Amino acid sequence: MAAKRLPEIAGSASSADIGAQYFTIRNPAFRSFLDQYAGRESYGEWSGIFRFQGADNVWQQLRPAERFVGIPRMTAITRALSTSLEIKAGIRIQSLDQGTGGLWRLTDTDGGVHDGFDAVLLTPPPAQTEELLKASRLDSLANDLNIRISRLQACWTVVVRFPTGTGTDISGYMPNSRLLHWAGNNSSKPGREDEGEWWVLHGDPDWSDANTETDPEEVRRQLLDEFLSISGITAEPSETLLHRWLYARPRARTGPGHLWFDDHRIGIMGDWLEGGRVEGAFNSADGLVRRLESLGLVPAPQPDAEVQS
């Protein structure tokens, strides 16, 4: 989940969700996790009209579902989850070394050493994870990772503002297009305070893959023109922002969930191991944690003690 601050003309507190547009909840444990650790106020339902085009290009209603978003932006959820955690930002680990007693030592790109770890859990995209494993002389793990998981596809994202609105009541489009995968009215999400309407456009995965090195202005033009064409919107756009995700969507719809290399005590997790989706990230991590609990590497949660009368 990611958000990008918008120009001041849209209001100082405004931002647009440039990554995951919304999430669904199929696993009851995911809802319980969010409510307990992020708080129910950090997210809410995005009610609206969502349409898609079939192969015949006829617009249809997207399947009814509860679609949730962070409030006032998607990153509100991750910020809430990290409140009680000790997080060290701006540090890039370049190698892992397993020393005496099996404890892990991590060395960062500035030469700093972080040691004394029983296990290492990795969450970067597969390309960076593979690179780190090879730099740590763990080629067998890197090769196993390369065989067992799906590669991630790129995604070009354009954020565009319509200062006087668009005149449409549609909140999201999924067109039958070789260029455009999704177009969503970010300003229609709950808790947003924007001037005008900001829309987020996501390029088709195959098209984005083929155009990762295309001139950004050309990408911007093609995606915006495609959106205006398929939506029939005639309003004049003003500001636009552009972002390129090199690693966005897994090709495969399914995956192993997580990876655990017991001999090395290295675990790998991420939404890309669970077929994508925000909930997939939770399911991947939850599955790995359950495995670590069974191995005695992390304590299992204890039920609340009964109150003695």
Automatic annotation (TrEMBL):
Which residues are in coiled coils?
none
| Protein name as catalogued | Amine oxidase domain-containing protein
From which organism does this entry originate? Marinobacter daqiaonensis
Q: What is the lineage of its organism?
A: Bacteria, Pseudomonadati, Pseudomonadota, Gammaproteobacteria, Pseudomonadales
